[in-house]
Amino acid sequence: MDNKGVLITGGQAELGPLAAVQMRLSSFAPYRWFVATIIWFADKLGVRGRSLIIALPYVWLLVFFLLPFAIVLKLSFAEIAIAIPPYSPLWAWVDGIYLKIQLSFESYQLLFEDSLYIKAYLTSIKIATVSTLLTLFIGFPMAYGMVRAPKQWRATLLMLVILPFWTSFLIRVYAWIGILKTKGLLNLLLMNLGIISEPLTILNTNLAVYIGIVYSYLPFMILPLYANLEKLDGSLLEAASDLGCGPFKAFWSITIPLSIPGIVAGCFLVFIPAVGEFVIPDLLGGSDTLMIGKTLWVEFFNNRDWPLASAVAVLLLIILLIPIVLFQKFQERANARST
Fold this sequence. Notes:
- The chain is mainly α.
- It folds into two domains: 10-67, no CATH class; 114-304, MetI-like fold, CATH 1.10.3720.10.
- The protein is built from 16 helices and two strands.
- The chain has helices at residues 10-15, 17-26, 29-44, 50-76, 106-113, 115-148, 151-162, 169-180, 185-192, 206-230, 234-242, 247-258, 260-275, 279-284, 292-302, 306-338, and strands at 91-94, 98-101.
- It has a two-stranded antiparallel sheet.
- The longest helix has 34 residues, at 115-148.
């Protein structure tokens, strides 16, 4: 029995703190009802044991991804209306007998006809691509240096990479305003060192957006690279050195090819959220910084055009799915060739 009077059996005590957490959750009626409901539905569907555990992530995706996406997809085929909510229904009963379905493709048509949205998509992809490459060029040497560091320092270095996540994302972006503005810390430092004679205009430019994205998403590049490089067999580099291969050639011939999975994972983790980024372009970018995340926000909240905003979101998701599907196809072909 623990200090709060909850009885823990010997088998559960051997499992450690997870068993104690589960016991405490079991004391709450909503948790018991939730678990009982899942077990009841699984039993009705004939799903038990390992199959039930495997099915839980798919249930999570269904509830928190597919259902919201279905709602957004439905809104994208509606028409804007002066009402609450501000869109027309997709179906209606005629004379209480016939079901009339009203699908409107006007929002999608506007996306391809208006150059504003095309420019927003292209600018977002360009900024996300450049930012991803910059994070890769900065993050790879950092991850490689962490792996090559003494083991007693690796945990500390890893903690320093994760440390920015302990602070609010919004506060960290606001901090860059104080650094990059005309009378900010960066300009004051450069002027005191005599490098520049007048302040640089960095804030409210695309350069500030690149700096903000690279800073904010750099840990997402370093962590998968570190996890991949840590598994690298050092004996391969030693064998290459014994065979007369130089350090630079061994790095490009052995380290880079073996780190491809970490590079791809890091690029996806940076590119996908960077395309739809809203906070950084809004705070650090200027009036000419047109990204699709900001455009979506304007359509949804300022213009109150929910169907058009939903169409923007659906098309953005499709654009982001294309490289993922292509990469999966490439991986399947590579695995088929290797077998």
